[in-house]
Amino acid sequence: MVTYMEFNAAAIPSIVVNYGMQLVAAVATLVVGLYLVKFVIRLITKSFEKSEVDASLKTFLTSMVSILLRVMVYITALGMLGVEMTSFIAILAAAGLAVGMALSGTLQNFAGGVMILLFKPYKVGDYIEAQGYEGTVKEIQIFVTVLTTSDNKTALIPNGLLANDAMINYSTQSTRRVDWTFGIAYGDDLDKAYDVLNRLIAADDRIMQEPKPFMAVAELGDSSVNIAVRVWVNASDYGKVKFKMNEEVYRTFDSEGLSIPNPQLDIHIQQTNAN
């Protein structure tokens, strides 16, 4: 028993020295590593500031790189202390797999957010239509995109759906085409209708003359002759021009003697002789 205690007592200085050096090396690695992470993040931030990368993408990428580098530093420091990292990493991987399966929808939205930030099918301030909603993009978050609708509602659309389904962006082009279909009664003067429409178009300065406005008979309907009208405007004027022209046509057609017919059905009754 005495020999065993003497042996342990003799080994203590060596054990203290060995573990002490490992501890100092691990702490030094941790301090230097974290400092280098900050230095790298500053370099990345400065490079982003000089580039034209979207602000949302800058924040996202900087945060992700910072987290990954810090995790690597901590794992390295723990390894220098003699912690068995193989089992530790295996446990983390298993836990990550379980969490990933439980949050598959959330991870899909996260991946969708990354795709949106990278490829930019739309940006903050754009007017888009998707998933039965349309409105102005207020925020592009990691998991959802926030829209403000025209009637001032807030719509949250998962990024996974936006990244993998059809979406219309009305703000990518500077101009838009406005389409109308106006009906006149059978027997009305078609040339007069064209003349009235041309005067109304010329009177609105927001309507472009190039490309030239287009109009033609689109359909001989059941109760009306339908005239298709196509003009081009600045995208910001689309709604104002569309609604204003509807109002002007209604007022002017009536004063010019042109009828806007209601749907009607002619019924013919035929009598037959019973004999």
> What oligomeric state do the depicted chains represent?
single chain
CATH topology of the largest domain: Helix Hairpins
The structural domain count equals 3
Q: Uncertain runs with pLDDT below 50, 5 residues or more?
A: none
Order of strands across the main sheet: 4-3-2-1-5
Average residue-wise pLDDT: 82
Tally of helical runs: 7
Instruction: Give me the strand/helix succession.
Output: HHHHEEEEHEEHEEH
Class computed from helices, strands and strand pairing: alpha+beta
**Cα end-to-end separation:** 137 Å
Do you know the CATH architecture of the largest domain?
Orthogonal Bundle
CATH C-level category of the largest domain:
Mainly Alpha
Compute the number of strand runs.
Answer: 8
Q: What is the helix content?
A: 40-55%
Strand content: 15-25%
Q: What integer value in Å does the Rg equal?
A: 36 Å
Structure description:
The N and C termini lie far apart (137 Å). This protein is α+β, with helices and mostly antiparallel strands and 275 residues long. The chain is elongated, with a radius of gyration of 36 Å. Helix 1 (2-50) packs antiparallel against helix 2 (55-80) and helix 6 (190-203) packs across helix 7 (238-255). It has helices at residues 2-50, 55-80, 85-102, 104-119, 159-164, 190-203, 238-255; strands spanning 127-130, 133-140, 144-149, 154-158, 168-169, 175-184, 214-220, 225-234. The strands form 2 sheets. Strands 4-3-2-1-5 form a 5-stranded antiparallel sheet. The protein is 53% helix and 19% strand. The longest helix is centred in the first third of the chain and has 49 residues, at 2-50.
